[in-house]
Amino acid sequence: MDLDLSPQLPKKLYGGNGGSYYAWSSSELPMLRQGNIGAAKLALEKNGFALPRYSDSSKVAYVLQGSGVAGIVLPEKEEKVVAIKKGDALALPFGVVTWWYNKEDPELVVLFLGDTSKAHKAGEFTDFFLTGSNGIFTGFSTEFVGRAWDLEEKDVKTLVGKQSENGIVKLDGSISLPEPKPDHRKGMALNCEEAPLDVDIKGGGRVVVLNTNNLPLVGEVGLGADLVRLDGSAMCSPGFSCDSALQVTYIVRGSGRVQVVGVDGKRVLETTVKAGNLFIVPRFFVVSKIADPDGMEWFSIITTPNPIFTHLAGSSSVWKALSPTVLQAAFNVDSGVEQLFRSKRTADAIFFPPPK
Q: What region holds the Cupin type-1 domain (predicted)?
């Protein structure tokens, strides 16, 4: 099985004074297409406004940098105006309309990872804009717009003619967008940097898992996610998703080494990853990471809302569960070697601090 799992950076699709929109191409990262996964990134400068749009894919959004405001309208629901900041994760189901605004930060950056199994193009998001030079108003005739919204022809022409930019605009301060409401965050966003830790290993790393318990909307999206912070030179245990899920990983900070082993024990990826890289681990393939001295942080989505992982090292690994004689026979070693192997990594951990 020949797979190209090489980490990739995104390419700019459009933008202007207000910011830019980037996406990973399924032609350059074929596993996106094969796994029906999309990945994109929105970067808004101060006063940058991402125009209202909806997508052909359900997504998880993760704020990589800065703070701002997100407007979210679920189907047949009222608008939620949510304050967002670095570390926030939001689940965006099918049919949701969103807008994004950077009111005062130098730059607001939001990562989008999602399921493209029902999208127009496998491995890529397609957004449909409500306004802008490529919005729905520009496609309908003046007659249709006038009749649908009960407007006179001159008013229709004003609406359409004023929309000179697409996707992202920069506001001049003459319009005050809605202020976020604290109660609108409930159930819409979870800050992964402040949430209770699911795993905390001293000198190793920490994990926050995003699932239906702490953000119920991920059930509608059909995806789970996690934020992992690996300490300097620490290792993340080799492991795999045992419920046939794909794992899509974006390196948020730092750098480190990654190895992925697939069918027939073949190492299909051995590389160094750094901030901004995206890579995909196929179903059932085993992955392990070692951080560089400054540590490494990554955000991943898993293609199931409540993922289950099997780790191959530590006291809860499958090796510890197998009978001693089974290991002796399988490894073709004597009992002394088997006991040595079994006696190591006795702690229930998925992260291992660097050797002393």
A: 3-157, 195-339
